[in-house]
Every structure is written in structure tokens, then in C-alpha cells.
Amino acid sequence: MNTVELIRKKRERKNLDENEINFLIENYTKNKIPDYQFSAFLMAGYLNGFSAKETSFLTKAMLYSGKVINLNSIPGKKIDKHSTGGVGDKTSLILAPIAAAAGIKVPMISGRGLGHTGGTLDKLEAIPGFNTGLELNEYKSVLKKCGAVLIGQTKEIAPADKLIYSLRDVTATVESIPLITASIMSKKLAEGIDGLVLDVKTGSGAFMKSYEDSVALAKSLALTAKSFNKKVIAFITDMNQPLGHYIGNWLEVYESIKILNGEEPGDLGELSFNLSGAMIYLGGKASSVKEGIEISRELAANGKAFQKFLEIVKLQGGNTDLIKSPHKYPESKYNEKVYAEKSGFLNSIDNYEVGMASLDLGAGRLTMADKIDPKAGIIFYPKIGAKIKKGDLVAELFTDKKEKIAPVKKKITGALKISGKSPQPLKLIKTSFSY
Fold it and tell me: Which domain holds residue 415?
């Protein structure tokens, strides 16, 4: 095959077949196609789109560029969850132990945060000693022992994805639903799962800002998973305000501990129980998602979910004493409060700005080389629709960076739209569908 001809074919809005896509992915991964040619292919695909079949072919080629984990030796259904990420989205830390406590196997390979969204790996690594870099034999061992394991992408898993994502990042081709789909699903399918629950965010703090784009991505992900004979339940969920109240790596671990102990469920608990309920249903441990949700609530209320979390932390080398006594965690040098500047109803939040404020305090990274402060972050109190009085406490800031406090206070107050009119209440779960 000829790389130039395949680029031209895609440029002219023609579909590539499976062999042609395999040729491009395999040869780029082996350094036989240079970056400039593969960039041209990516841009042609970005501008002209990929069909559902092409998306499935891309996913398959990227999936089989590395190892596909075989978990047949471990009994039970293997079910995972993928979220497109957002501000305060810590559901993986909650639903993995809940689903495992219900008898589901949860082989979770997660990512790091970049920009305004936090990453599951960064939250887990806020727990001293927690090892997210397990080798595949250790990964299987932990999964077999306690039913859940949470690691990062290894060199063996979908290596084509790592190469292609790095190139997309510098060629303005990230925001392509088929390319996003192939990137996500090649990693998820490599885990050896039987089913997948999707949480696609929409709103100001989401990667996909519009509801229509979020639905399109969810359907693309679900249809691609279905083409590999995987069962899928997809949720479109709100990200117009922080999920829960805590933003920042250790702060999010702390809030997860509270939910796992049956405390203060709120919107974070509601979403986590819905997602874990869907996982429990897909794994055959409930007759419906509704029953799965009830099982999830019970496992949090009776302490079994928290005990499972302790087991996961211990097996992955983490300090369980701090999970049992989170108040002993090191504190930031500075703890500052942010107060409302006017009275009225909280009509909207620029959630992207709240996420960036947390990053400014040290809780995130703009580049992969940036160092994260696990203590840093924000406790954000009001929810959209709340009635606020001037001088009410809006947020607490935690940081070692004194020079960032004043600009972050300004950023947070600027992100709030307060008026005399009460807004329509937000719907946390916009819709859901299954394949």
C-alpha cells in the first residue's frame, strides 16, 4: 500500500477499509511512516470524519498494537467505567470498591489529569505509597485477591494510542469524536472487560461543552464497544458545577472516604451509586440498574464498600492508616476563605474557571512535566440554585503558593453568576441508554 494514496483517499472523503487502516497504524507505530505524513492523515480524518466502521477499525488496530490482557483465569464478570472527566469527578474511587464488594471484577486502567480536569491516578497517588504502576502479573494478582485494581496505562497496552495522542495534541486534531473514541476504547478493551459503563460529561466544566456533542461521543463509544461484543450502559451527566464539594487530589480522596462510609451522599453519591448500580447490573449481580443502585447504597451504609477500599489500598502499597484517619494527612501552609460579594440566587458557575483555579493552587498540571501538590485544592460549597447572602462562605482554598491566593479568589468570585432570579434546577443525569 502507498501512504500518500491513503492520505489522498481520506482527503477526498472516501472511506478506508480495515487493511488500509491496519497498514497506517502498524507502520506508524513501527516508525515506518513519518510524523508529517501521519499528521496529514489525522487532519484529513479530522476535517472529513470517519465512519462508524472506520472508527471500529481504528480502535481494533490500536488495541492490537500491544497486549490485550486475558483475564479468563479469574472467575466473574469484568466490568469497568470510563468518564470523560471534569471538576471534582472522583467517582472511580467510590464505584470501584462498591462494585467489587458486590462481587464484580473491576480491572480499571485510568489516566492522569491535564488542564482543568483531574485524573484518577493523581488522586490515588495522593495516598502515600499507592502504586499505580503495577506490572501486568501484579495487576492480575490484585484483581484476583480483592476484585478491583486501579493502574495507569502500561507500555504494553495500546502503544499506538500513546504515539498518536501525542501527535494529535500538537497538530490540533484532538477534538475528533472518532479519534477520541478509538483512543479511549483501545485502552478499555485491552483490559479484558465484558462490559463498560460510560459517564460522558456535558457543560462548562466538561471536555464536551454541548449536550449534542456529548451524546454524539457517548453513542460513538457505545457503538464501538458493541462492535467488539461488549455490553454498554451510557450516561450523559452534568458538569456545569463541581461534582461534590471537594476539588484537588487528597481532598477528593477524603470526600470519597466519606461517601464510602455512608456520609453525605449529595450529587456525588447519587451519580456514583447510579454508575456502580449499572456496573452491578452488567455484571449479573442485580436484575436491574435500580436494584444495583440499592445494593450500592447498602454497601456504603454497612461499611463493606469502605473495607473493600482499604483492601485495594493495602494491596497496592498505600498507607491505610491515613484512609482510616484522614485528618492526619499533612496540611497546606495556607487555608484562605472566599466570601460571596453580593446576595441573590446562584444562577450559574463557570466550572472551567473553578477547575483552573484549583490548578493554580497546585492541584493540577498544564503540561505532563508539572508537579502536583496532593494537598492543594478547593472546598466549594454552594450548588446552582442556592440562595446566597453577601458575606456567605463560598469556598476554602488550600495551597502552599501564597502568591496564588489573591488571583484565585478573584477567579472564583468571577466564576459565579448571582442574580435575583431563581434558576431552573439542574438535572444531574441528563439521559442514559444501553446497547
Answer: 332-419
